[in-house]
Design goal:
The model is unreliable at 1-5 and 74-79 (pLDDT under 50). The protein is an all-alpha fold and 323 residues long. It starts with 9 loop residues before the first helix and ends in a 5-residue tail after the last helix. It is built from 11 helices and no strands. Helix 1 (10-37) crosses helix 10 (273-284), helix 3 packs across helix 7 and helix 7 crosses helix 8.
């Protein structure tokens, strides 16, 4: 299997992205339960999500095997030169700002125009912007199968989220959703661009990005109110721990690792597993009705996600490993 300078096989990067996309989809259901259990605002939730996720990531770093421990066998790869300090700082700021814009603008779009329209515009525009950006900046070709996969994914997303619901499209909400998509695009393209050269550790990238995002969100969270009122503090605490651990610390660590080795357009399509996961949870855990639109949209998106993932895996197996 093909590997890159970071030593992560492309196939494993695809798996990381699939798990991250599914984990992201659980955040919406958990956030809905948070809103039911307290008066926490969306910006404060985003801040605590990032701040607690950052603490968990820092704790996990201390649990890594120490240099004296037995080394784990890894594929033989060309050792990448250490990343310069200036580029580390630039990567952290750029990725952190992209993450902050992505999350905050999306929550604002949901408030302005509703969950359905905000989700369709943000997640629908994301793969298109990323495919265009990857073609212009890194020469990554989408190809006919990729175009069909993106088209199928966007169709499935529209059917899944908008099917059978009364929606209202408000221009300001659409602008905010497009801003969120741009932040997602920038975060993905930068991760892939810097990941091609190696020398960067995905864990370091995730920790630094979360630190920048937390600092960016802090003043807005203070203005909104950091400490929520709740009659169920134990439930709220467990929900916040889950949100910080699974769809944040774990999912973003896997996302940054996978996005560094997988083509940007493929990564963007795979991450559309998020609304699929959210739809499954809405039906199974939150008691929402399973509609024909939900079923058709889910099947369309799963098929579209599988296409580029299989193509990328085949290309990785066909390419010789970098030694």
């Amino acid at each position: 299997m093909s590997t890159v300078a970071s030593g992560l096989p492309v196939g494993r990067g695809l798996l990381y992205l699939i798990v991250a996309g599914a984990a992201w989809g659980t955040a919406g259901a958990a956030a809905s339960l948070v809103y039911r259990a307290s008066d926490m605002g969306s910006v404060a939730l985003s801040f605590w999500r990032c701040a607690a996720g950052l603490l968990l990531l820092l704790a996990a770093r201390h649990l890594r095997p120490r240099p004296g421990a037995a080394p784990t066998p890894r594929p033989r790869v060309i050792a990448a030169a250490p990343e310069p300090l200036a580029r580390k700082a630039l990567r952290a700021v750029a990725t952190g700002l992209g993450l902050a814009v992505f999350q905050t603008a999306y929550f604002a779009a949901v408030d302005a125009t509703g969950l359905a329209v905000a989700t369709v515009v943000t997640l629908g525009a994301g793969p298109v912007l990323i495919a265009l950006g990857a073609r212009l900046t890194m020469g990554e070709r989408l190809g006919r199968p990729g175009v069909l996969a993106v088209a199928g994914a966007l169709t499935g997303l529209g059917v899944l989220v908008l099917g059978g619901e009364d929606t209202a499209v408000r221009p300001w909400g659409v602008v905010l959703a497009l801003l969120s998509a741009a932040g997602y695009c920038a975060m993905t393209l930068l991760t892939r661009y810097w990941g091609r050269d190696g020398g960067a550790d995905a864990s370091d990238t995730t920790v630094r990005a979360f630190a920048v995002t937390t600092l960016c969100l802090l003043p807005f969270a203070l203005a909104e109110g950091l400490v929520p009122h709740t009659a169920e503090p134990a439930l709220l605490l467990w929900l916040m721990v889950y949100i910080a651990a699974i769809p944040t610390a774990l999912a973003y660590a896997l996302y940054f690792a996978g996005a560094a080795v997988v083509r940007s357009a493929t990564a963007a399509v795979i991450m559309l597993l998020e609304p699929v996961s959210a739809a499954v949870l809405a039906v199974t855990l939150l008691g929402e009705r399973l509609t024909i639109a939900t079923l058709i949209g889910t099947l369309l998106m799963l098929g579209s996600v599988a296409g580029p993932a299989v193509t990328e895996a085949r290309a990785a197996r066909a390419a010789p490993a970098i030694r």
